[in-house]
Automatic annotation (TrEMBL), chain A:
One term of GO molecular function: tRNA binding
GO term, biological process aspect, one: tRNA wobble position uridine thiolation
Protein name in UniProt: Cytoplasmic tRNA 2-thiolation protein 2
Subcellular location field: Cytoplasm
Keywords: Cytoplasm, tRNA processing
Gene3D superfamilies: HUPs
Function, as annotated: Plays a central role in 2-thiolation of mcm(5)S(2)U at tRNA wobble positions of tRNA(Lys), tRNA(Glu) and tRNA(Gln). May act by forming a heterodimer with CTU1/ATPBD3 that ligates sulfur from thiocarboxylated URM1 onto the uridine of tRNAs at wobble position.
Record field: transmembrane: none
Keyword Cytoplasm among UniProt keywords: yes
Matches recorded under InterPro entries: CTU2, Rossmann-like_a/b/a_fold
GO CC annotations, alphabetized: cytosol
Pathway: tRNA modification; 5-methoxycarbonylmethyl-2-thiouridine-tRNA biosynthesis
UniProtKB/TrEMBL annotation, chain B:
Name used for this protein in its record: Ubiquitin-related modifier 1
Entry similarity comment: Belongs to the URM1 family.
Keyword Cytoplasm part of the UniProt annotation: yes
Signal peptide, first to last residue: none
Species of the source: Betta splendens (Siamese fighting fish)
Pathway(s) this gene product operates in, as recorded in its UniProt entry: tRNA modification; 5-methoxycarbonylmethyl-2-thiouridine-tRNA biosynthesis
HAMAP family noted in UniProt: Urm1
Modified residue annotations for 1-thioglycine: G101
Cytoplasm is among the record's keywords: yes
Organism classification: Eukaryota, Metazoa, Chordata, Craniata, Vertebrata
Amino acid sequence: MCQAEEEYSDELGSAHVPSVSKKCVKCKEATAAVVIRAGDVYCRACFKEYYIHKFRATLGKNRVIFPGEKVLLAVSGGPSSCSMLHQVQEGLSQSVHKKLRFLPGIVYIDEGGAVGRSVEERLRTMAELQAVFKATGFQFYIVPLEEVLDLPGSVVVSALAPPERANSTYKAEVDHFMHSNCSTRSAPQDQDHEALPEVQESATQMLQQLMLSAKTLTARQNLLNTLRQHLLVHMARTRGYSKLMLGDSRTRLAVKLLTSLSLGRGAQLAQDTGFSDSRYGDIISVRPMRDHSAKEVFYYNHLFHVTFLFIPSLDTKQMTDKASVQRLTESFVTKLQEEFPSTVSTIYRTSEKLQTAGRCSSTGDQCERCLLCLCTLDTAVDDASAFQATLISEQLSQTAWPRVDRSKVAKHQGKPESTSFTAQYCSAKAGAQDCGGCCSFAKEPEPMDLRSLLCYSCQLTIRDMSSIEHLPPYILSEAQRRHRRCEMREEISEFLLDSGKDD
Amino acid sequence: MAAPLAIHLEFGGGAELLFSGVKEHHVTLPSQSEPWDVKQLLVWIQRNLLKERPELFVQGDSVRPGILVLINDADWELMGQLDYKLQDQDNVVFISTLHGG
Ligand SMILES: [Zn+2]
Ligand SMILES: [Zn+2]
């Protein structure tokens, strides 16, 4: 009744009264400012508390980060990862008992070269983020994606996991930490923080050639994600970090989950979207923002002045929703969130329940892990799988499969180039046996076929590439190494006592 | 007749790209016989500020899904959304949540 009167008086242009004033459901006193779900309205202060609590609870309940452990925060400059950085800062400034107890560092990977930004634009973004990072006092690394071209082959090899630490030791280490080291500061800065990395133009060109060899935006995005992931793992390994912290929000993970499904990554869903991901063995990725919706992230950042940037991505220029599978899924999830908000949490909760069967062992044979995404290979499965279906339709349609001449790999590695052209003319028939037949007439290197080294989903990505010769050397040389290993194993298999081939 | 309204508009999360990259706009809505509401504001923005691709900002007579609206730092869902009656010196923020994370 009161409100009706107020609105009336507004129309007369007199009083300035807020038209609605709902109370916060938590403290039941302050005026609500944020609607989290229908009926769940929070005031500013309670929203802040709720947001921070959620972050800490996600980290706490999973207990994967040990006290004093070095954790590398992957900050893209976007809203969610910047919010994550803010949460970590917040957590370190707390009093002893509430304080986060790990040692954070920051890594930013500048993808500007892959998405066609100019040098000036890239420098501007880097300078802006540098200012944000400096203010944290943490160790930080600003790395252009071009550095992925110089990675060692070991990046795509899953390292041995450190000896398992039991939950009981977690408790002990927390206690130990609390007594010994209450005022932890981040490690001394060993890097010249003033200098932004310089990128060689030729490296940018090579990266662009690689991106352009992917014919669809979907494949390009997958490729970019793969390269970024490799560089992140490499940075963590070489700088002494044992955890990578990723800023994926709940909304992002819901998009990722549906995208993964439609791109044939069903078998890898749990690792792709779960709280932690151990496929690299020694470096474990964690996603502490997975309980925060995009809306919460944006509200928090706005209300509490968290700086973040809008950084153009691969598809920024193609503003249509159907440009790629990823983009289409995002637009679907966004609409879903708007019209059926609970559905998105359902999608995301599904990911928590997914468990891959015990096939995957971290000590496993390298031949059994995908060369690109390092998931356990899912291609040795039953006849009715999507994988088999694709193989059959490929055989029927004689789709060309991009190959690389092994001599070109040799060139990449600085060895003399041989004159083999047969390889390129070797049409892609299904199965390596056919192929072996048609190009073995001369004693020249066989074309390298990555298929046997890739999971189903990564095969689809590579199939959408016009050629794989622009792939970074570390991928090609590791592929070659695995091929040789498999060949060798075949040759000596009859002499092995336990060849694993018993009928 | 309502007097002209001076309001502060802010675009973020990439939505500013639709407004020549300018994040903050101080605008004056002309006087009209009825009070201004958010629905009319959206029409006014489309006519006067939005330079390109209106479909990325509006859908029907509301904002496109994925764009958050805050009125004076509160969720517009608490303020009556499209029916909220604008006041002089109001602060309206539009944030695109698409492609963020
Ligand atoms: Zn409250
Ligand atoms: Zn893979």
